[in-house]
Amino acid sequence: MASQPSRPPITCHVLDTTTGQPAPNMFVLLRLLQIDNRSLHPENGEYYTAQTNDDGRVTSWERRGDSRELQEVFDSGKDDVGELTWSLTFAAGEYYGRENTFWPEVEVKFFTGRGRVWEHVHVPLLLGPFGYTTYRGS
After folding, report:
1. Residues 85, 111: contact at Cβ < 8 Å?
2. Counting Cβ atoms within 10 Å, is residue 110 exposed (0-12), middle (13-18) or buried (19+)?
3. How far apart are CA 104 and CA 124, in angstroms?
4. C-alpha distances in angstroms, 135 versus 104, 112, 125?
């Protein structure tokens, strides 16, 4: 049996800019949207869910439905599959309370595969009730 990597190939964390602190217990959805510009039907997609920990980080994902292991899907972009388009959706409305934020959710899309030789992708989100920013972390 192959050993599991120490961390998933895609991680994220959320900082609450109103408090300057991590955002714990936020629901996050990770989806594979496209393979080489071909959109996946929602029923055939790869879905993973998590909640941020006390440090506002997602350090592991739970597979949904018939989704393959995340490492396997991520690695397929390095092989013959090509470019992968991903989506991270953060439940900002649930975190702040729907009446306290402009954002029901924040979706961040990004590429992996096809010439991108990253072994790991980290997506930080700096989130407030009325604004956010993100970048490719390390």
Report:
1. yes
2. middle
3. 18
4. 20, 14, 7
